Amino acid sequence: MRLGRVNRTLTSALCVVCFSGCVQAVPPDLLAALESIDQDMIALRAPETAPEEYGAFVRQWIALKSRVELDDDVIRWPWETSELENELRGLYLRGERTVSQLHDRQANWQRTAQSKVESIEDRFHLMRSHIGSIDGRIVLGERVVQTDLLVKQARTFFEQKDYRRAIQLAEEANQALVHQAALLTQELGRYADEKRIASWQAMAQQTMDWSRTHQSPAIVVSKAERELILYKNGRKVLSYPVRLGFNGIREKQFQGDGATPEGRYRVIDKRGPGQTQFYRALVLDYPNAEDRRRFDLAKKTGHIALGKGIGGLIEIHGVENEYAQQTLGCVMLDNPSMAALFESVPVGTPITIVGALTGQNTVALALSELAHHNRQEI
Hints:
The chain has 378 residues and is of the alpha+beta class. Helix content is 55%, strand content 12%. It has three domains: 5-106; 119-190 and 370-374; 193-359, L,D-transpeptidase catalytic domain-like (Beta Barrel). The protein has twelve helices and ten strands. The strands form two sheets. The chain has an eight-stranded mixed beta sheet with strand order 5-4-3-10-6-7-8-9, with helices on both faces. It has a two-stranded antiparallel ribbon with strand order 1-2.
């Protein structure tokens, strides 16, 4: 019942007289409860995650609040029904159900996001580990850095409880890893190719046979395992760990590409102190006739730009100094190993450089494991 100021005063007085039984048209605690529901929805990101439900709630809540403000001077008897209060209570119940559903949805998103973020972090660390073990960073370039940023952003959004965004970024990082693994396989798949492995094994065997036949030293270098093996009289006598060019795992194509060449070579010069910038060096006869044939064919077919040169001065050498421990396409040993090797081989010693000696080489195993993980869902 809406009353004028005089009537309202009279009615208020009557309420006091009539057992103090008059009440406000809308209980304050109901309004506070609805405000709390609204805040709960905002905290649960309802405007983003449930825009339709939240939009319907807000529109009705604004309309009802306007009516409450218009009826703020209304009082009623306890036995009187209030249509406005009934609508507010109905809105509260619907809002409460929505908040409950959002809580459940948020919990599901949290579990999903946690699973995806942890999975992509594990896969990225695995990828980075394999990239390091096979010198694959030069193949992927800045892609690794970009993926690292995606993974870190996914973790940040998860900690901020923005689970939908965390899931989205984790999935983007996953697609990036799938693409990078495919690129590595495309560039380095020859390390898992049975025909290439058989060809490399044959080359190494011929070198060992030469050593046995001529009762002389010979060298085989496995790029995949970063190992130099010294044979004498056809028997393995020593092996040394080596470094390759900054892009050494790839096939050499042209001057400056940082790749270490593969093929059969010979030592054409031995350079000691004062004759080389390195500790000691064994100079190889790269490029030989086979290298030139491949290079000319690649140029004719457009695989190498016309302005590129074939390069030269490939060596097995020691370390220049403690600050220059990277070679540009050669094979590098630490200085004690280089000193022993230098004394063991004469000019004319055959040196065979191959990609790998077995199908279970480091590169092939890394590619296989990456492919296995790519088949799994995050």
